[in-house]
Structures are given as structure tokens and as C-alpha cells.
Amino acid sequence: MGEQAEVGYKIWATDDVVYGPVDMPTLVEWVKDERVVTDTWVFVCHDNKWSEAGKMSELRSVFNAVLPGSVPVSHTPLVAGIKPGALRRVKILGEMTDQQLGRFAQFMEVENARQFHTIVTQGAVGDAMYLILEGELRVRQLVGGKETVLVTLNAGEFFGDISLFDHGPRSADVVANNPSVLLKVSATNFLRLVQEAPELATPFLVAVCKTLTARIRADNKRLRDSINIGRAAR
To answer: Each residue of 206-220: pLDDT tens digit?
Structure first.
């Protein structure tokens, strides 16, 4: 028997990421949301070829219903709120292909944080990790009403990862120093990712573990240095 052709559609979006495969109902919804426009390139899996969306007979009636007699001119990334290239700035996603990035983002939620907004609160139950796409955040603890900044986080970094595994209390507040855009990985969506797309979950987890290992090594070195300085002082 010959190999069966893959069913579905892949979309080359304006953020230079290939999304999919998705089914026709999803593609129709993206057209209605104007995330797919007439000159968006769509790969038709069963035909094994790329076509402009506006030239696909199965989408013509949808475009006519959305914008009768006109051609959409706006270009909105398929993941609303994410600017082109933003995903590529996240270090732990660096090893993913464009198609893997597009599929990964569909399991996540975009969260916009205004300046001085507290994203997570110390002591609260953790139920998500966050990837920083834009902006700057500070990790702080309040002791006796005074703020101690533990670290400053910038675009490309992440936090809250341990909560995906133990759902334990947050160890510190995380506050936006300026308007920021975050990709939220909720515990629920992470479980979906593991179950529905293990080929994406595996490289993601490996990248997270590598970063955690580097952090532990750095913490151990700081502890050794502190002990050595203390002993030398005596």
C-alpha cells in the first residue's frame, strides 16, 4: 500500500513561522479573525503544494463572507499579541524549528503586563510558568515591608517553571518594571502538550532542564565562594 497523504493545512504566517497542520474548521476561523488573509501562503497537505489562501477554492466563499468585494490588507500573526520574531528571542525555544515553534505557541496563552503589575505573588499556589517575550521584570521579596530585588529578568528568559511540576507556593513576587509581553505555559496546557505533542514537549523540557542545571551550578559556586570567604575571614 502507498503511504497515505497527510490531512490538513499548514500556514506560513507573517511572523515567519509555519503553523499546523490544522484542520479546515480551524483554518476557516483564522480567516474570519483575519489572521489568514488572501496572500497568506497555505500548504495543502493532501496536494503536497503551497497556495495563496485567496486562490484556494475551499476558502473563496469564506473570504467573500468576511470582506465582500475587498482584499484584506492587514497582516496579523496567527498568535495574537506576539510580534514577528518574538518567539525566537526566548532562549529555551532556540532549538525548535519554525514549524515546531508555531505548534508550540498554540498550546500557550499571551499575557500582557502593564508597568508595575504583579504577575505572580509570593506564597500563591503556582499553576504556570512564563516566557518573557518583551519587557523587563524584577523578582522580589518583601521583608519587614522593604523590597529586596533578587534578580532582574529580560526578554528571552523564563520563570515559574518549578510550579509546572509541584504546584507549590511561589517563592517570590515577580513584578513588571515596564510594559511586558509574556507567554504563559499553564499546568493544564503543559499537560495537553505532553499528551498531544510529545515531540514538542521533549525538546522544551530538555532546554528547561539545561537552564535549571546551569542555575544550580551557579548557586553551588556562590555558596562555595561564600563559605571560603567566611573561613578566610576567621
So the answer is: 888 888 888 788 778
Structural domain of 92 = 87-228
Question: Given strand 9-12, what is the order of strands in its sheet?
Answer: 18-22, 9-12, 41-44, 49-52
Q: Which residues of 179-192 are buried (b: 16+ CB within 10 A; e: fewer)?
A: ebbbbbbbeebbee
pLDDT digits (tens, 9 = 90+) for 20-71: 888 999 999 888 877 788 888 898 888 888 888 888 888 888 888 775 444 4
Domain CATH code at residue 99: 2.60.120.10
Residue 82 corresponds to which cell in the numbers above? Answer: 506576539
Q: Which three-class secondary structure state does DSSP give residue 67?
A: coil
* CA–CA dist 120, 128 (Å, integer): 10
* Euclidean distance between CA atoms 118 and 109, whole angstroms: 17
**How far is 71 from 120, CA to CA, in rounded Å?**
43
Tell me the pTM. Answer: 0.63
